[in-house]
Amino acid sequence: MKRRQFIKKTTLSSLTALIGTEIVFGEIMPLGYEPLALQDPNPFKMFNKSKEMVVLNNMPWNIEAKAHLLDEKITSNEYMFIRNNGKIPKHVDAKNWAVTFDGESVKKPKTITLQELKTKFKHYTYQLTLECGGNGRSEFDPPAKGNQWTVGAVSCATWTGVRLRDVLKAIGIKNDAVYIGYHAADTHLSGDPKKEAISRGVPMTKAYQDETLLAFKMNGKDIPLVHGYPLRLIAGGWPASASGKWIKGISVRNKVHDGNKMTGKAYRVPCNPVAPGEKVKDEQMCIIESMPVKSLITYPKSGAMLGLGEKLKIRGHAWAGELEVSQMEYSIDFGCTWNNCSIEKPANRLAWQHFSASISFPKKGYYEIWARATDSKGISQPMVLPCWNPKGYLNNACHRIAIKVK
Ligand SMILES: Nc1nc2c(c(=O)[nH]1)N[C@H]1C(S)=C(S)[C@@H](COP(=O)(O)O)O[C@H]1N2
Ligand SMILES: [Mo]
After folding, report:
1. Which of 12, 26, 178, 277 has its CA 20 to 30 A from that of 349?
2. In the predicted model, what is the mean pLDDT of residues 91-105?
3. pTM (2 decimals)?
4. Which bound ligand lies closest to the C-alpha atom of 393?
5. Are residues 338 and 194 part of one domain?
6. C-alpha 91 – ligand 2 centre gap (Å)
7. Which residues pair with residue 99 across a beta bridge?
8. Does 233 share its domain with 278?
9. Which residue range(s) make up the domain with 390?
């Protein structure tokens, strides 16, 4: 009979370190056995997230914030939502990381190391709003499949990197270039190495904007692994799915990029509005580009109480894709009348803007505060879910909080 194989001493000591205490009887643990303590990862610890964040899915990891957690002017990692389509890359070798530029519209394919990107190109820093196209999906009726995001799949952090435009110029792009598509190091949930978890992109006009970055820093530090370390594409104001994490390649295409999640119903909405629940042919779906105007009350938390005669100072953020927010209003009478909030200018193009207002309430009782932003083209947020679509994208209905005056 073959002897039962026991764990190696070195493996045991690394397991001990991971668990943080002695594994009693560890030497007689079977070879290859993974202790339960390591099979049930604590996502908050693993990703350095606040315990108040809400896990929507663990395969892949999808985690959202609550409105009041997004109160900071610049979102810190602790409160930044996580959206993954596949498995997070396990072995990231930042020292030898490189990006391959290819596709029909590059003059000659070329690979540039991360080190070269950092040393040969000028660095830029911007605050950039990233909102998942599916933020607000939980309100769709009939419901839409996918992560049931409420309001917390949005962030605005500071990103530092090089302009994609500068790098593309150095590579040499043909005149027929139409779109760029990214390729990333995460793996497809099926485990099939030939399939990409996601490979989206943007038209050349967006790729060439000042704020479109190949970023290597978030809030002044290395990007956390789950948010794209060591290199991430950032295309602020567009559905965050265009901002590829763990970038290994950029294809410059002579047609609209057709990578995974660019076609069919993914990140596309009916070109013309349809009735709720209606079936839509793929040919009648259009790619989501700039995100619609939206806002979020981040203080106080819904359910706050105050005494009669006290003034309530509310605050939050508003954003409008590639446009600016030009007006911000609130209502305490279910949308009958609206009052202006004060709204700050964005720190830079594509950054969210901060609003505040001081509110008095006429008598004791229950109130709701509704917030409504208007963009620079005069388009306002709708009060109820607009434009139903099969996959539940672009819900920019007004955010509301409940208040009790005692
Ligand atoms: N490589 C890669 N990039 C990706 C994704 C992904 O699954 N893999 N998800 C996209 C989607 S759908 C969103 S909403 C954002 C989420 O970014 P975050 O997790 O850093 O908040 O990343 C985008 N970039
Ligand atoms: Mo997303």
Report:
1. 178
2. 96
3. 0.91
4. 2
5. no
6. 24
7. 112
8. yes
9. 294-405
